[in-house]
Amino acid sequence: MRRVARGDRAAFEELYRRSAPWLTVRLRRRCSDEQIVAEVLQETYLAVWRAAGAFAGSATDGTAVGWLWTIAARRLIDAFRRRAHHAQPPSAAAAEPAARAAEDEVLEGVVGDEVGDALRRLAPELRQVLQAMVLDGLSVRETSVLLGVPEGTVKTRARRARIAMREALS
């Protein structure tokens, strides 16, 4: 990231080569519109190129990936807002997870068996809210836009998910 911040095109190309496939998959899990995914991807890397100097973490501790995802998630929410302003909001199918995603497998490897089992037993709509708010760090409003449900529904699902996780882990 330091090299990208200095304007090193080769470093930027390497960052893109390593992260774009993963980022594309994550975006597709949240949006079925390929045009929006492509636009968000382009906007994300443009923002990274312009703001790499603002990155505070180190490339060795994995926070660059988190920073990259935060930018992409916010760009996706902006795209959903633009689309909602000009047409209909994203369909619920766009927010439904695909078959078994790589990030789910990584999550299972990171969290303990007990927590992983509790997460897998959650209803999909509760798991989506937890993923958006806890793993992706989105606000209630951003999660609402991302999932295409009212803010009150997000709050209710988050509360139900916390209760279910607490019960499963006690």
From TrEMBL:
The keyword Coiled coil does not apply. One of its GO terms (biological process) is DNA-templated transcription initiation. InterPro entries: RNA_pol_sigma-70-like, RNA_pol_sigma-70_dom, RNA_pol_sigma70_r2, RNA_pol_sigma70_r4_t2, RNA_pol_sigma_r2, RNA_pol_sigma_r3/r4-like, WH-like_DNA-bd_sf. Residues 15-84 form the RNA polymerase sigma-70 region domain. The keyword Transcription applies. Residues 114-164 form the RNA polymerase sigma factor 70 region 4 type domain. One of its GO terms (molecular function) is DNA binding. Keywords: Sigma factor, Transcription, Transcription regulation. PANTHER family: RNA POLYMERASE ECF-TYPE SIGMA FACTO (PTHR43133), RNA POLYMERASE SIGMA-70 FACTOR ECF SUBFAMILY (PTHR43133:SF46). Belongs to the sigma-70 factor family. ECF subfamily. This is RNA polymerase sigma-70 factor, ECF subfamily. It comes from Lentzea waywayandensis. The lineage of its organism: Bacteria, Bacillati, Actinomycetota, Actinomycetes, Pseudonocardiales.
